[in-house]
């Protein structure tokens, strides 16, 4: 954008039909790659009918700004206008809905004799991970080369956003399972403090080493600065993402504050690694 | 924000068609859920069990049944109990558990008996459930 000349508007192109369909094909692949573990998890099917409708609505509405952000940092193509990002987001949702519907019906997890509420619920839950996958498809499999991506330098907030998506990437797989609650129940306070410490150490190590490769986390920053601005703030972002996902999946339910806190710490462990490796994964 | 070689791209008419479809899908899903939430306030599970006729199987008899949840919330770990009685005397009982019976949905299953259910009084009822 900053490099746009006065004549810049004339240089904008629309992708050819072939290129567009290639992008849609990649989006399908991305949706399946990202959502298949969840499409094959029975807790995710059950959430389709056990979750209250308003939780599903909140999840779908929260998905939109998240996808808008992803469109800016990855997505199908380079975009500089709100409406082009919006078009990408909506195409990703369309792809996610079709992919989830086809797979759920093929698995006979959804059948036509089920009540509409059950079918729509099951598909709606899967649309969340699938549309993220569709959106990420370009950056994972597209033409954008690694050097191309390293040229772009997201702002500090953009960097934190990517960390949040990285955390989501790993925690979405784990959040709906019963194991996450079971692990939290098995752990003592000291286990939890140790896990939190290990999460921070691993996260810092990854942020530091990955950060050198590109992005805003440059080598000329001091250890303390990287730790404070990226690792600590990043961990807070990860913990908030974990809490949000647990809440949407009704895993926080009637639990006490301690239970919720220890579940968040357990989930933030993979989340922290996902966040720190976001630049590698996304 | 995403920079690189070449100018940013615009959206083609074809892509807008796909995008409109996506918009319709998300609007319809949200609309359906909101409408369902408003018109179906959560009520306790209300399970109706309809047993079918007993059939002879290799080791005894089978009574197949359909359990329908008329309530607006899901029953988890729902037990279905079948019993054969003669007056006050219980001849035989049989039990099965469903992981989930979603709201307004039906699931079918079967109960095995050694005695012939046709020769006794058969009752198949829901036992209990937990909230998921």
Automatic annotation (TrEMBL), chain A:
InterPro entries with a match to the protein in the record: CHP02587_IM, DUF2391
Please name the Pfam families in this protein's record: DUF2391 (PF09622)
Please indicate if the UniProt record lists Membrane as a keyword. yes
What's the superkingdom here?
A: Bacteria
Coiled-coil annotated residue ranges, if any = none
Keywords, sorted A to Z: Membrane, Transmembrane, Transmembrane helix
Q: What protein name applies here?
A: TIGR02587 family membrane protein
According to its UniProt entry, this protein's organism is Paracoccus rhizosphaerae
From TrEMBL, chain B:
Ranges that cross the membrane: 16-34
Keyword match Transmembrane helix: yes
Q: Which domain of life is it from?
A: Bacteria
Which keywords, in A-to-Z order, does the entry hold?
A: Membrane, Transmembrane, Transmembrane helix
Q: What is this protein called?
A: TIGR02588 family protein
């Amino acid at each position: 954008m900053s490099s746009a000349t006065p004549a810049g508007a004339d240089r904008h192109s629309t992708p050819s039909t072939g290129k567009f369909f290639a992008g849609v094909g990649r989006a399908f692949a991305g949706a399946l790659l990202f959502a298949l573990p969840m499409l094959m998890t029975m807790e995710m099917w059950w959430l389709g009918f056990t979750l209250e409708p308003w939780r599903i609505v909140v999840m779908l509405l929260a998905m939109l700004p998240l996808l808008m952000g992803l469109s800016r940092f990855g997505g199908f193509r380079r975009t500089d206008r709100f409406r082009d990002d919006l078009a990408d987001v909506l195409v990703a949702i369309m792809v996610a809905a079709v992919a989830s519907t086809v797979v759920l019906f093929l698995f006979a997890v959804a059948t036509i004799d089920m009540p509409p509420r059950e079918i729509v619920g099951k598909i709606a839950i899967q649309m969340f991970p699938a549309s993220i996958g569709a959106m990420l498809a370009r950056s994972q499999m597209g033409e954008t080369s690694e050097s191309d991506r390293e040229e772009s330098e997201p702002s500090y907030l953009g960097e934190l956003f990517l960390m949040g998506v990285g955390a989501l990437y790993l925690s979405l797989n784990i959040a709906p399972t019963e194991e996450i609650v079971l692990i939290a129940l098995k752990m003592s306070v000291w286990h939890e403090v140790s896990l939190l410490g290990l999460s921070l150490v691993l996260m810092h190590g990854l942020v530091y080493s990955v950060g050198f490769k590109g992005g805003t986390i440059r080598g000329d920053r001091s250890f303390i600065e990287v730790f404070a601005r990226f690792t600590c703030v990043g961990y807070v972002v990860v913990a908030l993402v974990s809490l949000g996902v647990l809440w949407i999946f009704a895993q926080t339910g009637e639990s006490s504050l301690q239970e919720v806190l220890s579940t968040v710490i357990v989930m933030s462990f993979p989340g922290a690694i996902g966040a720190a490796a976001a630049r590698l994964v996304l | 924000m995403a920079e690189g070689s070449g100018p940013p791209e615009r959206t083609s008419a074809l892509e807008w068609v796909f995008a409109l479809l996506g918009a319709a899908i998300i609007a319809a899903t949200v609309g359906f859920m909101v409408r369902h939430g408003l018109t179906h306030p959560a009520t306790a599970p209300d399970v109706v069990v309809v047993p079918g006729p007993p059939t002879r199987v290799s080791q005894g008899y089978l009574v197949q049944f359909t359990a329908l949840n008329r309530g607006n919330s899901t029953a988890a770990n729902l037990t279905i109990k079948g019993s054969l009685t003669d007056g006050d005397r219980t001849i035989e009982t049989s039990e099965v558990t469903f992981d989930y019976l979603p709201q307004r949905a039906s699931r079918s299953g079967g109960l095995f008996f050694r005695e012939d259910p046709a020769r006794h009084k058969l009752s198949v009822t829901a036992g209990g459930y937990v909230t998921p």
